[in-house]
UniProtKB/TrEMBL annotation:
GO molecular function: transmembrane signaling receptor activity
Top-rank lineage group of the source organism: Bacteria
The organism's taxonomic lineage, starting at the top: Bacteria, Pseudomonadati, Pseudomonadota, Gammaproteobacteria, Enterobacterales
Family: Belongs to the methyl-accepting chemotaxis (MCP) protein family.
Organism in which the protein naturally occurs: Enterobacter agglomerans (Erwinia herbicola)
Protein name (Swiss-Prot/TrEMBL): HAMP domain-containing protein
Entry GO terms, CC: plasma membrane
Membrane-spanning segments: none
Pfam short name (any one): HAMP
């Protein structure tokens, strides 16, 4: 029973905790996976998924920042054009 708990139940519990955290938007979970069996591959897969999500979120944040920067430039250009148009009218 103790062996079953250490070999199967604890890693499954940890995998459940990690997936719950990722599902809640927490991408900071640390993995301490030293296993080379199926459970280790499961935990490694979860870690890879988390790293991929971190990368994706970072790219989205960078893209949003770039869109905001360009939008500001366009807005500034429109205001400038509007001012020049009013002066000519």
């Amino acid at each position: 029973a103790v062996v079953l708990k250490n070999v199967l139940i604890k890693p499954l519990r940890r995998a459940g905790e990690v997936t719950a955290a990722i599902g809640a938007g927490d991408l900071t979970s640390e993995f301490h996976n030293l296993r080379n069996d199926e459970m280790g591959r499961l935990l490694q897969g979860l870690e890879n998924m988390q790293l991929g999500l971190k990368t994706m979120v970072s790219e989205i944040v960078n893209g949003v920042s770039e869109v905001a920067r360009v939008t500001t430039q366009i807005s500034d250009g429109n205001h400038s054009l509007s001012s020049r148009t009013e002066q000519q009218a």
